[in-house]
Design goal:
This is Geranylgeranyl transferase type II subunit alpha. This protein has one domain (about 10-70). The protein is about 75% helix and about 0% strand. The chain has helices spanning about 10-40, 45-55, 60-70. The protein is elongated and about 50 Å long. It starts with 10 loop residues before the first helix and ends with a helix.
Amino acid sequence: QHGRLKLRPPDAARRRQREEKLRLYRSAMATLLEKRERGELDAEALELTGAVLAANPDVGTCWNLRRCVF
């Protein structure tokens, strides 16, 4: 383990991983924006904001939505 180089996944596999992450991120953001429009500030919205902020903490909309949920 120590002193050994990590094996990188092939480019195609890495690209698929990034695309899957991006798809999940976009889906969560779309759901959050829909919930905000409908005024559904519940535990699910809190979970979604946590997931989005874990991926990208610079999304001000999520921080503001979290503040409204509390």
